Amino acid sequence: MNKRIISLCLAMLLMLASASAAFSDIADSKLSQTASVLDALGIMQGVGGSRFDPGSALTRAQFCKLAVTAMGFTDVSAYGSYTIFPDVKNGHWAAQYINAAVRHPDLKKQSIIRGYADGTFGPDKTVSFGEACTMLLRMLGYTEEDIGPFWPADYIARAQLVGITEGVSITNPLGGINRGDAATMLLNTLGASMKGSESTLIDKTASSTVKNCILLATSETDATLAANEALFFENGAVAASPRKTAGTLDKSLIGVHGTVVIGKGSEKVVIGVVPNAYKTETFTVRSVAADRVSTDAQTLRPDADTSLYVARERAAGKYTEMWSSVQSGDTLTCYYDAYGALQLLAVLPTVSMVSDSTFVYGVATSVSIPQEYKIVKNGAQVDRSKLQKYDVVTLDAANKQALVSDARISGQYTAGGPTASYPQTVTLYGQSYTIPSNAAALFRDIRLKDYITLLFDVSGNVAAAYPRSVVSADMQGVVTGIKDTQATIALTNGLTIKAEIDTSDPTDVKGSINPNDLLGHMVSIAQSTGDKASLTAKPFSTKTSGSWTIADAKLGTSPVSPRVRVYEEVLSGAPLSAISVSDIKAATVSSEQIRYTVTDSAGTVTDIVLGDVTGDSWVYGIGSVTDEDTTYQVILRHWDGSKTATNTYRALGISKGLNDIPVGVPKGYISGGERASSSLSTLSLTLVDTVDRAAFDGVSGVRTGKGYYPLADGIGVYSTAQKEFISLQSAKSNYNTFRVYANKTAENGGKIRVIVAS
3-class DSSP state for residue 641? Predict the structure, then answer.
């Protein structure tokens, strides 16, 4: 049977924790989500006062009501006027539900609940684990003939097989279940297949459903959405327009992959989302490039057409178009379809852990940080003395820690609404930022066109605003994307901005800046009048002294943030290429290989620029060059993993001598651009040896006269006869002579980067 079993192990929701819970007495994020779903569906509500009371026992009468409601029978008033069981009189609050379960034509045949042998029902008795499993299985259409005669053992075993007990730890079949366990089992049952059918119970509670959907945003997380609207990924893409919802869906449901439930009312609005069992994975991003995402666990290589959604950008598109919007430290969620194929990458909205416990340190509105709390600033534990005035602190009571951020953006306040002196949104550099009510009050003395600084909490939400004369931001970062004259800049404080570039430059011989020359470079940012930003290349003038011992997270005597952003500058003046710490195979990076570092106000190293440490920040292939009227055109043919790809670079200056030879071009240069870059450097590869096919150790390495060399991952082979790249396997089947080229000696970490077959 094809089962759609609900999985409540949704790791991506751990970031939301209890801050976004609908009920104040649920600390567990999984149970919080479960309760929110059932409440939205009108099946299982709280007990009042924003409480769910998950630990209280559940009676047989209460469970019967849940079961009947979950099967889509909300109006059973006709069954409350008579008595079936002597201990459930017609005036009993649950009589209509109990009687309906026994007498309703569509429920009677399933016998979801029965009385005792003495004729009583026992409405106030705590429902046992065995009884709950039995009722839920009967709701799915199972009978004793399907399960077996031994109660409750056979029923519990089948419930485990179907997935009903997923997420509960009860072992005593006669032990009572509480409201929390009942909610978990009930939601599991809603998503499980009916016996012998593809339909589910959730189909009975809705007028219609939309399967394989992901809730991406609500009006609470995206200011462009109206109240009672939500944005979904559906039908294989991020929806072009939002859906109407019955109220604002709880934030704990954001990121849920499942079935959208459309209510039975006349308006046909979304009333909830029921999770499915499709695979999801959540990673912390270490670095990102056009062809990969390096995470804390592995390197992902999504197809160029894979959908990518970035909440803070309020934008979605193909990975090849959106990758530069992802930044180090982001939580990236990977969603797969029923067949295990990756269908969406998402950086979801972030929510402060405990919003009412977030404050600006060192000002009149600050609160005390308990002495037993540890201080975690920008991901690194620091001494309390490292706290600075205007740091943003979020108290995490569950883990007894104070999470501290010094992320800031300074710029001109160009728009705010609905009232500039008490805004819900403000605009800096053409970007809109949502302002919470407590921060909005700080705008009373701020006017449009003033230069201000926004302060952000650890989740990337605006926490406060001040005039730039009071507190300012160190506005420097790496340009990770250029589209026409708009730049995407990953700031060294962990934030990302998009800004229109002020290209005017009276000192430039052409009177303007070439935006292509900024891509991949560290820049300082100043705001010109309006939303345009003036970008200036930043020289690498300072660095923290000492070597970087990776395992100890120390650079000299300074701590290195666990979320450190690392770049390679493979040649002086080449674009920076983001890499992951895991890409560095050496245990220690010498001081000579470190070109630039950035530290936060606590002295923790947050950004490091290295030289050519990994050898992976090049595009390797066969290069040639042609002269144009005033520029050079470099053509690089390379293997993209499945076929020959061709990059064309235009530059004002280039090393001559490229004539169908193996070279490397630094990653980050714009290929196919209309405007030529000022210069373009290349790396000449060294011919190590000429070998036959027997020298290859599979796809791992090759034995040469100069020793054993590893092969670069996914390497292809250039055929001089075909003037195309082919796979290594195909090359070994058709050729016997191979020239192998390396970027460095094997002793210095070199690999075979290009193979030429003839």
Answer: coil
| CA pair distance 582, 566, nearest whole angstrom | 10
Sequence letter at residue 32: S
List the one residue out of 301, 303, 340, 296 whose CA is nearest residue 318.
303
Which structure tokens are listed for 396?
A: 């995490």
pTM confidence score: 0.62
The whole-angstrom distance between residue 95's C-alpha and the CA centroid of its chain comes to 47
Encode pLDDT of 193-220 as tens digits.
888 877 778 777 677 888 889 999 888 7
The rounded distance, in Å, linking the Cα atoms of 204 and 206 is: 6
Neighbouring C-alpha atoms within 13 Å toward the C-beta of 666: 25
Q: What is the DSSP secondary structure assignment for residue 93, as one 8-state letter?
A: T
What pLDDT does 15 receive?
A: 29
User: 492 near 500, Cβ under 8 Å?
Assistant: no
Q: Please provide the distance, in angstroms rounded to a whole number, between the alpha carbons at the two ends of the chain.
A: 55
CA–CA–CA angle 94, 99, 101 (5° rounding): 100
Is residue 248 within 8 Å of 223, Cβ to Cβ? no
Q: How far is CA 344 from the centre of its chain?
A: 10
Return all residues near 392 (Cβ < 8 A) that are at least 6 apart: 358, 359, 360, 361, 404, 405, 406, 407, 455, 456, 457, 458, 463, 464
d(CA 534, CA 622): 37
Within 8 A by CB and 6+ apart from 49, the residues are none
CA distances from 98 to 63, 64, 135, 205, 444 (A): 10, 6, 13, 19, 59
CB 463 within 8 A of CB 396: no
CA angle 541, 542, 544 (to 5 degrees): 160
Distance (Å, whole) CA 323 – CA 346: 11
Report phi then psi at 246, rounded to 5: -80, 90
Q: Which of 239-243, 509-513, 657-661 has the lowest mean pLDDT?
A: 509-513
Residue 257 burial (10 A CB sphere; 0-12, 13-18, 19+): buried
Burial class (CB in 10 A: 0-12, 13-18, 19+), 211: middle
Cβ atoms of 400 and 448 closer than 8 Å: no
DSSP state, 235? Answer: T
Amino acid making up residue 556: G
What residues have CB less than 8 Å from 26, skipping those under 6 apart?
Answer: 18, 32, 35, 52, 54, 180
Whether 311 contacts 221, CB under 8 Å: yes
- Element containing residue 233 per DSSP (H, E): strand 229-234
Q: Which two tokens stand for residue 600?
A: 């936060």
